[in-house]
From TrEMBL:
Lineage per the UniProt record: Bacteria, Bacillati, Bacillota, Bacilli, Bacillales
EC numbers on record: 3.6.4.-
Source species: Pontibacillus salicampi
Domain DEAD-box RNA helicase Q per the UniProt entry, residue ranges: 2-30
InterPro entries: DEAD/DEAH_box_helicase_dom, DEAD/DEAH_RhlB, DEAD_box_RNA_helicases, Helicase_ATP-bd, Helicase_C-like, P-loop_NTPase, RNA-helicase_DEAD-box_CS, RNA_helicase_DEAD_Q_motif
Family listed: Belongs to the DEAD box helicase family.
Motif Q motif: positions: 2-30
Keywords: ATP-binding, Helicase, Hydrolase, Nucleotide-binding
Protein name: DEAD/DEAH box helicase
């Protein structure tokens, strides 16, 4: 166990870290913080949800010179939501040092952003497109930047972003430290990265598999036309606290969100065609429980840290094994348990094999549940609700009526009637999705020929827990007693009766 105390942090940063509830450093923090604080370039690869943000954030904050009120550090992240989230985490880490952090991303008012940048926040966290815009307009001062971070580095150096990133890095001072982090790092991208850095130290957490062991991984083999019913049945049985359903296209996401809503789920979609205001709003509702199922394209696959996401469903299997890793990594974070189910059409089975091989994980088969099993799942929720109410023990006002009922009817019938009323009848609204063609594996094999390198890693992401100001999701992996008290509103028992 490595405490942050032994990592040689300054008093103010240490105070922030402790206040954030971090008791001990995660393995990636333990290994990369000393090297980064030494001023060296680092490529850090560790599983999803293992604290990479603080692994680059802490050294970066430590390096900020408070006497210089100029922009000194820059973090580039692939999506707006991630830029926001990273900025928030850096703000927390730098709160006692008084470091000013500004998120900068598209879809927001340019004029205001320019005014904010003029004030020279010490750290800017930006998406590539908007950042390049500012670089070209010369509305960001880069001359004092000593640290640059690419979060989700492989994604940032992937086809879609690489030219922007190259253009941005070319404008940064040569005398700088560059830090790259991601849960995945395909070899060809690693090579590109190395060329952009100065003798980088690569830190790879040894893990047997690229995915976190605490995420139980399943698949259902299901025809395209049966996917939607299968999804709603699984949701009825699993009763996730919060679930993310990934779809392949924006249209798919819209159709899924509408279909789930029609069947009575509180679901909303998020993808790149929505206005920034709408995107933020959906995410906010998901975080506070107003939305229980977030349907998303890969825009939500990388980096997002939302506590309480117990389940991830790959309604459409992703093209790349890397995307698979990031998508399912939205659950099972910071030592919590998670559960992931991928929907595979018969023709995509070989694609699943490729994912298993590349990520080194075993994905277990799950039977498609019957409508009856789904209904039983709903009954179980009714029972939970009833038990919760029983244990809350403020039922005096109902005692007289209850006694009368028990005199007239037998008690089992009375309770059954109550349960029937509490059981949500799932609306069987027909939902027709526009059909998608299966993923082609040949294409994937061709592009991803050198993935065996991941197989010799050992798990590095376990064994730490925040125990202070915990985000309140306790793993109940074994299911515990049948009638768990669900404590507080929407928290429900974590069921794993997937075979029932
Ligand atoms: N030392 C720690 N102890 C407890 N919790 C921590 C610690 N470090 C980070 N966390 C928390 O763990 C969660 C995951 O961290 P973070 O988002 O940095 O993961 P990540 O490795 O970047 O994941 P991803 O690959 O998905 O981006 C966050 O809620 C973060 O606050
Ligand atoms: Mg991250």
């Amino acid at each position: 166990m490595t405490t942050f105390n032994s990592l040689g942090l300054s008093k103010s940063v240490l105070k922030s870290v402790l206040e954030m509830g971090f008791e001990e450093a995660t393995p990636v923090q333990e290994q990369t913080i000393p090297i980064a604080m030494d001023g060296r370039d680092v490529i850090g690869q560790a599983q999803t949800g293992t604290g990479k943000t603080a692994a680059f954030g802490i050294p970066m904050i430590e390096k900020i010179n408070q006497d210089i009120k100029k922009t000194q550090g820059i973090v580039i992240a692939p999506t707006r939501e991630l830029a926001m989230q990273v900025a928030t985490e850096l703000n927390k880490l730098g709160q006692y040092k008084g470091v000013r952090v500004l998120p900068v991303y598209g879809g927001t008012d340019m004029g205001r952003q320019i005014r904010e940048l003029k004030k020279q926040p010490q750290i800017v966290v930006a998406t590539p497109g908007r950042l390049l815009d500012h670089v070209r307009r010369k509305t960001i001062n880069l001359t004092n930047i000593h640290t640059a971070v690419l979060d989700e580095a492989d994604e940032m150096l992937n086809m879609g972003f690489i030219e922007d990133i190259k253009a941005i890095l070319a404008e940064l001072p040569l005398q700088r430290q560059t830090l790259l982090f991601s849960a995945t790092m395909p070899k060809e991208i690693h090579e590109i990265a190395t060329k952009m850095m100065k003798k980088p130290e690569t830190v790879r957490l040894k893990a047997k598999q690229m995915t976190v062991e605490r995420i139980d991984q399943y698949f259902v083999e299901v025809n395209e036309g049966k996917k939607f019913d299968t999804l709603t049945r699984l949701l009825d049985i699993h009763v996730p606290d919060l679930a993310i359903v990934f779809g392949r296209t924006k249209r798919r996401v819209d159709e899924l969100a509408d279909g789930l809503t029609a069947r009575g789920f509180r679901a909303e979609g998020i993808h790149g065609d929505l206005t920034q205001g709408k995107r933020q709003n959906v995410l906010k509702k998901f975080k506070n429980g107003g939305v229980e199922v977030l349907v998303a394209t890969d825009v939500a696959a990388r980096g997002l840290d939302i506590s309480g996401v117990t389940h991830v469903y790959n309604f459409d299997i992703p093209q790349d094994p890397e995307s698979y890793v990031h998508r399912i990594g939205r659950t099972g974070r910071a030592g919590n348990d998670g559960y992931a189910v991928s929907f595979i059409t018969p023709r995509e089975m070989s694609h699943l094999n490729l994912i298993e091989k590349t990520t080194g994980s075993k994905v277990k088969r799950l039977q498609i549940p019957s409508p009856d099993e789904a209904h039983k799942g709903q009954q179980k929720i009714a029972v939970d609700k009833l038990v919760e109410s029983l244990e809350a023990n403020n039922l005096d006002a109902f005692h007289a009526q209850a006694s009368e009922l028990i005199e007239q009817y037998d008690s089992v019938s009375v309770v059954s009637a109550a349960l029937k009323m509490l059981t949500k009848e799932r609306k069987n609204v027909p939902v027709n999705l526009t059909s998608l063609s299966p993923i082609s594996t040949k294409h994937a094999e061709k592009n991803k020929s050198n993935k065996k390198r991941y197989n010799d890693r050992k798990n590095g992401g376990k064994g730490y827990n925040r125990n202070h100001k915990s985000k309140g999701y306790n793993s109940k992996k074994s299911g515990g007693g049948q009638y768990q008290k669900s404590g507080g509103g929407r928290k429900r028992s974590y069921q794993r009766n997937q075979n029932s």
